[in-house]
């Protein structure tokens, strides 16, 4: 089984200007929700902390404000790693969760990688999830934006990395437009849970404590059904999970510069097959894939039935960062199944399916 993980969870909130990030952050910083959250704002953030909401201020390299509702707020003006380190060192007993606001144009990948590549962060803080807000009225404009060669379409990236997607401001567009947008989002990311919202009103339990990077919750992420508006059920399992072996294979790639045209070529591929995997072959297949294509594999999650292993093997990766662990035992009458989901750029379904199924033991 996967051992418990008592590190502090952190959530990345991303979305273009006007997508509703400010409304969500204001809710976190002002509502009496009973949660102790430390919010790290980016220096160009739109949230203006009203003086009447500030209970106390800590002077230091970065100002940390204690708010009346028990939350903390600070602005990062440079090194996010240093800011997280300072929060943990000075105020660890004052909060149970960190929320990081990105700039509107940010690609979440470098921030995600910080949680695995930087020991000062990894030792105390675990990544809980990436939440992306999408402005239903203007999203098509952002997604359609043609970028020059070597420049990423940030709106597509933000959707691709998400564990939770909130399609906000649906009151400003008609139902066919919303459905068309949701279908387009699903084409990019089938793994994320999606919710429609008005005025940025979302239950905080939908965005916090989601375990988007928890190996024990991988099965729901790799289920064949893309799930919309059903995330509430996931919170019946109040897990605080695990610390795993993590591997960071740095192959000297620049993960962030891609050529996106009108159709950026970012999509999801999910593969399901029965049978038992040859672990050596599966390891070689995934290892070679990450070696050759780590730039293009934004995220992947999987569940394997490994020959000779009584437990299910679960794994996930972000670019060249890969972590995996044996999980619970297979039930005696359970169908031993293998599932993998890739989200990335220029994915060839036939090629991936052949490579994955070639790892099955021949009967």
UniProtKB/TrEMBL annotation:
It catalyses: GTP + H2O = GDP + phosphate + H(+). Residues 221-239, 251-263 have a biased composition (Basic and acidic residues). Residues 240-250 have a biased composition (Basic residues). Keywords: Chaperone, Hydrolase, Nucleotide-binding. Residues 266-360 form the CobW C-terminal domain. Gene3D superfamilies: CobW-like, C-terminal domain (3.30.1220.10), P-loop containing nucleotide triphosphate hydrolases (3.40.50.300). The keyword Phosphoprotein does not apply. The keyword Metal-binding does not apply. GO terms for molecular function: hydrolase activity; nucleotide binding. GO terms for cellular component: cytoplasm. Residues 221-267 are annotated as: Disordered. InterPro entries: CobW-likC_sf, CobW-like_C, CobW/HypB/UreG_nucleotide-bd, P-loop_NTPase, Zinc-reg_GTPase_activator. Pfam families: cobW (PF02492), CobW_C (PF07683). Belongs to the SIMIBI class G3E GTPase family. ZNG1 subfamily. PANTHER family: COBW DOMAIN-CONTAINING PROTEIN, COBW-RELATED. This is CobW C-terminal domain-containing protein.
């Amino acid at each position: 089984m996967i051992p418990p993980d008592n590190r502090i969870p952190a959530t990345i909130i991303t979305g273009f200007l006007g997508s509703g990030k400010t409304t969500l952050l204001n809710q976190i910083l002002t509502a009496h929700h009973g949660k102790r959250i430390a919010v790290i704002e980016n220096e160009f953030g739109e949230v203006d902390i009203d003086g009447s909401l500030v209970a106390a201020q800590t002077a230091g390299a970065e100002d940390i404000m204690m708010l009346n509702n028990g939350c903390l707020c600070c602005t990062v003006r440079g090194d996010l790693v240093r800011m997280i380190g300072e929060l943990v060192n000075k105020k660890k007993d004052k909060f149970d969760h960190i929320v990081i606001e990105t700039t509107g144009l940010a690609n979440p990948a470098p921030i995600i990688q910080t949680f695995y590549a930087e020991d000062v962060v990894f030792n105390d803080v675990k990544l809980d999830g990436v939440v992306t807000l999408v402005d239903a009225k203007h999203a098509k404009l952002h997604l359609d934006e043609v970028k020059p060669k070597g420049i990423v379409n940030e709106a597509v990236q933000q959707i691709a990395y998400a564990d939770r997607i909130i399609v906000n401001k649906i009151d400003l567009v008609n139902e066919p437009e919303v459905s068309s947008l949701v279908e387009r989002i699903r084409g990019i990311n089938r793994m994320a849970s999606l919710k429609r919202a008005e005025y940025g009103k979302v239950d905080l339990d939908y965005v916090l404590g989601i375990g988007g990077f928890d190996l024990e919750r991988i099965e729901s992420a790799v289920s064949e059904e893309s799930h919309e508006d059903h995330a509430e059920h996931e919170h019946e399992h109040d897990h605080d999970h695990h610390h795993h072996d993590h591997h960071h294979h740095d192959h000297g790639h620049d993960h962030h510069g891609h050529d996106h045209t009108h159709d950026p070529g970012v999509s999801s591929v999910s593969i399901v097959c029965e049978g038992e995997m040859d672990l050596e072959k599966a390891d070689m297949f995934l290892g070679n894939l990450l070696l050759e294509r780590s730039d293009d594999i934004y995220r992947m999650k999987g569940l394997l039935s490994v020959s000779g292993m009584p437990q299910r093997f679960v794994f996930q990766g972000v670019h060249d960062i890969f972590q995996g662990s044996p999980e619970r035992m297979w039930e005696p009458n359970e169908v031993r199944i293998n599932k993998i989901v890739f989200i990335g750029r220029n994915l060839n379904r036939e090629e991936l399916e052949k490579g994955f199924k070639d790892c099955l033991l021949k009967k």
